[in-house]
Amino acid sequence: MKESYRQSDDNELVRASIEGNKLAFEEIVNRYQKMVARTVKGMLGDSVFAEDIGQEVFIKLYYSLSDFRGEAKLSTYIQKIAVNLTLNEIKRRKRFFTMFSQKGNNEMYEIEVADFDTEEKREASEIVNKALMRLEPKFRMVVAMRMLQGYSTKETSEILDLPLGTVLSRLSRAQEQLKEILEKL
Amino acid sequence: MKSTEIKNLIIGSANPGQDTMETTRMLEEAGVTYRFSKGFTKKVSDKIFSAEFAINREIDFVRSMNIVFSRIALTGIAAIVILLISIFLSEGSLSMNSILGLGDIHDESIICLLTGN
Fold first, then answer.
1. Residue-number span of the structural domain to which B24 is assigned
2. What is the DSSP letter of A65?
3. What is the predicted pLDDT for the residue at A185?
4. Domain shared by B61 and B95, yes or no
5. B79 and B52 share a domain?
6. Cα angle vertex B17, ends B15, B22, to 5°?
7. CA B7 to CA A126: how far, in whole Å?
8. B7: nearest CB among A26, A118, A182
9. Do A55 and B30 touch (CB under 8 A)?
10. How far is A139 from chain B (nearest CA, A)?
11. Residue of chain A whose alpha carbon sits nearest to that of B6
12. What are the tens digits of pLDDT across the range A127-146?
């Protein structure tokens, strides 16, 4: 058994993880946790709940690795799990807050302000988070995929399982909403 | 980076023709980064592999219970067969009465037993 999997490619990591190799799976987590954090925290805000969903993404990945056939990239496979779990969490929160809260949807996304070395960085992060959280979830997801992950419209449509036309129309609507939101910030 | 530049990048990212890789890079440089807390990998790993250990122990327990039950079942079947053979040898048949031990009882003997006459 290898001591380090840093040089291994994704397919080798998947094979070793399926065999129950802890180190190989930890390398997958190390390699893709930043990508998952961008999706989950970008969509849910920088909160402890997002951290839990992030963990859930990798736990689900581990138990579904045997279904991964290697036709798509591992990053795409993980991204799809992250998107699905995040959307489920948004739906769950929406249901919960509709039932139990009088204050509306704004408290659904609690943002914890992380430590930043400069005021400028803190402000930049705050603008992006506030803009994203005020977007409707269906628009937020396409914008997050483009802005935080750098995906093309085609990649965005593949990951979100949406027709390209839908992605384009959502981007256009999102842009209008973003202009309004950012004017007020 | 100034806030107006950040806002322009955000709006631009919703533009289908925009090079979003460049937008992502610039935003990261400006401080827009997302990370999980320290020890994230260990937390995930602990959850998976400690759960697996628990599942394996559960599977071992179920397996040993199955072995115990199959042994009990075999012994039980053997005991029933021996009992049936002994009934057949002593009673000469395997009728319900002989299985219930009523082979030699006649109506008169029951009346005698109940009335004492």
1. 1-35
2. G
3. 79
4. yes
5. yes
6. 85
7. 11
8. A182
9. no
10. 10
11. A124
12. 999 999 999 988 999 999 99
